[in-house]
């Protein structure tokens, strides 16, 4: 499973970035920061432009990070997929047929080991490894889980994207606009 060969998943922090993404030639896009009152129209805008929006559920202002919020997002907002650090959000996305992305902050060995246990339960479609500038960890997580990896966080240069892809990531998320067009 991949993003139809798309190596960059542009990530929007604001409406201006989202407007730029929906007018780009990239199909899959990520919405990071949003407000519950704007979600439905933002998802409709993306879909109307032929985009597949992955919504970071943990960063929706005005919405709790629980199973009920995830159900609301899946049933009423209907993005293409949900990204979350939360087990119940990922499981709910899977249950509703959305793309599920388990976001992992790999700060140390303890976080890595607890993430492996979490992944045994959630079995997401994709894992987003943060920070994405750790090629050897990207490689290890993919070898251990077999789940496609997306690298994200602290990716600032084209070289870092290439290193993540070479290590086994299928794509990289980045909010750096200058990197959106290079891949």
From TrEMBL:
Biological process, per Gene Ontology: glycerol metabolic process; positive regulation of DNA-templated transcription
InterPro entries: Aldolase_TIM (IPR013785), GlpP (IPR006699)
Keywords: Glycerol metabolism, RNA-binding, Transcription, Transcription regulation
An MF annotation (GO) of this entry: RNA binding
Any Pfam family hit: G3P_antiterm
Signal sequence residues: none
Function (record text): Regulates expression of the glpD operon. In the presence of glycerol 3-phosphate (G3P) causes antitermination of transcription of glpD at the inverted repeat of the leader region to enhance its transcription. Binds and stabilizes glpD leader mRNA.
Protein name: Glycerol uptake operon antiterminator regulatory protein
